[in-house]
Design goal:
326 residues, 5-stranded mixed β-sheet, thiamine pyrophosphate, oxidoreductase, Rossmann fold, alpha/beta
Length: 326
């Protein structure tokens, strides 16, 4: 079995579903002939034809409306927003319609669509191409919000998202699209949605993160281990609905929590986790919850981009502050 990148795992999952489910269609800007700006759909139109892999106009509003319409008529569309900052024209259809069909029809209709979104910074692109806007969508009832952090989880979670009867926003951390490889069996086995993944067991501090920051968080845990600190690392994976039980159980064991995300700090999704810990785990905490995040600015271009993003050093420093608190 050959090792593949995260972007190749996305392609592999899309190909599996197109092959095994005739109701699945893929659509978006340049996803067909050109195979997508990041090559996530490379070769799919040649294999499955232009009626299954559709190039659309450069019009995100139309893409979202078409996707919602297809989903309500028995199809399982997988649309692509070419970049995270291009999602905003889609919000009306996603929030006002896709997220509400189950509620609006008292369960008679659902909206089984996936919106794939290349997400986040770290690729030296302009600010509309480097946003971390997940918290906007975690606040919307009726949406699932999913973000894989490895090739294996990208494959399994995308399969699950396509098969889910409700709309899923599937954020793909583009900084790690080709950063490393894993062996990913192409067996059609989905991973569960709505659960966190405990990537590393620990007893001294809980590190909670998602997306591209999983890599830096694991590296920080490795560095801390050399200093005798046992860090538990949790990949949230499905942000909405949140599997808070896994986080609560970990914090009950460690007594400390550091939350890591690259979105701006104010009202970032880490604030929701911190609030839940204050409400439900106050007496387990031995130190205040720490957050390692981006800044309350738009991501700076090029030279300061990596300074904006959480680093291994910043994560380690937050852990040491937590461990030093009494």
């Amino acid at each position: 079995m050959a090792a593949i990148t995260l972007i190749e795992a996305i392609t592999q999952a899309l190909a599996w579903e197109l092959k095994h489910d005739d109701s699945v269609v893929v659509l978006g800007e340049d996803v067909g002939v050109n195979g997508g700006v990041f090559r996530a759909t490379a070769g799919l139109q040649q294999t499955f034809g232009p009626q299954r892999v559709l190039d659309t106009p450069l019009d995100e509003t139309t893409i979202a409306g078409l996707t919602v319409g297809l989903a309500t008529q028995g199809m399982k569309p997988v649309a692509e927003a070419q970049f995270d900052g291009f999602m905003y024209p889609m919000v009306d259809h996603i929030v006002c319609h896709a997220a509400r069909f189950r509620y609006r029809t008292r369960g008679r209709l659902t909206c089984p669509m996936v919106l794939r979104v290349p997400w986040g910074g770290g690729i030296r692109a302009p600010e509309h191409h480097s946003e971390a806007n997940e918290s906007i969508f975690t606040n919307v009832p009726g949406l699932r919000v999913v973000m894989p952090s490895s090739p294996q989880r990208a494959y399994g979670l995308l399969l699950a998202a396509i098969r889910d009867p409700d709309p899923v926003i599937f954020f793909e951390p583009k900084r790690i699209y080709r950063q490393y490889k894993e062996e990913v069996p192409d067996d059609g086995e989905a991973l569960p949605l709505d659960v966190c993944f405990v990537l590393r067991d620990g007893t001294d501090v809980t590190l909670v993160t998602w997306g591209a920051q999983v890599k830096e968080t694991l590296e920080a845990a490795d560095a801390l281990a050399k200093e005798g600190v046992s860090a538990e690392v949790i990949d949230v994976a499905t942000l909405k609905p949140l599997d808070f039980d896994t986080i609560r159980e970990s914090v009950a064991k460690t007594g400390r929590c550091v939350i890591v995300h690259e979105a701006a700090k104010t009202a970032g999704f880490g604030a929701e986790i911190a609030a839940r810990l204050a409400e439900e785990s106050m007496y387990d905490l031995q130190a205040p919850v720490e957050r390692v995040t981006g800044y309350d600015t738009h991501i700076p271009l090029f030279r300061l981009e990596m300074k904006y993003l959480p680093s291994v050093e910043k994560i380690i420093a937050a852990c040491k502050r937590s461990l030093a608190a009494s």
